[in-house]
Amino acid sequence: MASKTSPTTNFSEQEKLLSAELGRDSPEVESRDYDSKTASAKKAKAWREILTEFSSHNFDDIKHDLSQLQVCLRRLKLQ
Prior knowledge:
- By secondary structure, the protein is mainly alpha-helical.
- The chain has 3 helices and no strands.
């Protein structure tokens, strides 16, 4: 039986705009260079910095975690 995930709060338009801007400002997160450990470390560091910057804006006391932010950016990129 599959485990259920807890419901999450949708991203507001302000949050979407900020996450898109932060993603655009960090080209490391889009890097496809998987050959070295340093590339993976740079990518992880870039994601942590994006999450820290995103969380510092404190939209309505709603906390989103890294995986939620990554999914939001992936969906925005597809649109």
